[in-house]
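Database export, one record per block. Field names are fixed; values are copied verbatim from the stored entry.
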Amino acid sequence: MPTQNSDNPAPGPYHHFVPLFVVRRFQDGDDSSISNVTNNIKKETSSNNSLSLNIERTHVFDLSTTILSTRPIDSFYTCPNVSKNGTYSNKIKRVEEDMSRLETKATETTHRLHASLSSSELKLTRLELGLLRKFLFLFHYRSGHRSSTSSSSYQTQSWDPLQDWIRKRKRDRGLKDSMDLWLDGMQYYLDTPHQAIVAEGEGVVQRLGGEMKVEMMKRMGVNPNVNWHALEYMFVANDYFIGFWEAAEGTEFALGNSSFGLWEGLTMDSNYIHRIFVLSPRLILVLRNGVFGLNNPNALSPTFFLKSKLVSIPLQLPQTDSQRRKRRVSRLERIRWFMRLARLGGMCGWRILGRIVWRYLRGLMGLRF
């Protein structure tokens, strides 16, 4: 962090590499209301160009100087924005507008998560989960490093597994250069629903003959006819499941430059184990490699398979309502079957049915679900 207590945001076009709705959670006296969390309107300066007294501020601790200062939230966690590129101003404007709408939806979802912390479970609809996962993926994809170095990320001067795919994509889509290709990828992700992208990626894997064939292709050269955007997205979505860690009583999570999207741990095949997103002083969102989804990671011989400081922390696999519905349906089917037997079995059959119904009602009341 800069040592200077500046009230000025980064000069020129910029965006935050830590979302503002996360930074706002670290403000003093944060009441976590939806109006405070989702308000993305920047404070205007007065006629004499002095900053408004109502500007949003938070405390910042500088590790290099050990100084705790109060600064406007717009003045840190920023990086140059691609909007400074005038060549593709219309495309950039559309991407930024769509990204802003996606961030607003992610903001509302994280607010609901915080509101449910007092209960014993956090609930997300499938649509909310898809939007949240897409936002996390695109926030990295749009990051200052990824966007500002897009020309080198998609470089074809030396051999690269993607070079044939890049050339064909540019030719088929009429793309001029690497920045244009990057914007095209951003727009594809923003326009396509989460489930549709995952389904397309899974279709590519199936057509290529399985994941082993895909891994070989990634090393030998990507097939120019596949949808690489969908494949890249699908692997992140399917290989990592989502979970949450809440801060222990009397403690809080800190927010730093790398706190939104920090990779942690390494498996034997050089895949990361965790990706960590600090959402507030109380809550962290975690993407964990699906291989380590059990609460007993010692069964996986972690000393042999991985290097991680966090894998021993329990993180249960999420439970879907479809799983619960299947259990409800199976109970109802059993009741219908026993009702047929009860009609044939007389009084004894009806007594048995009564016991089954009672057990089913206990399950509905949450005693066994």
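Remark 1: The longest strand covers residues 260-267.
Remark 2: The two ends are 49 Å apart (CA to CA).
End of record.
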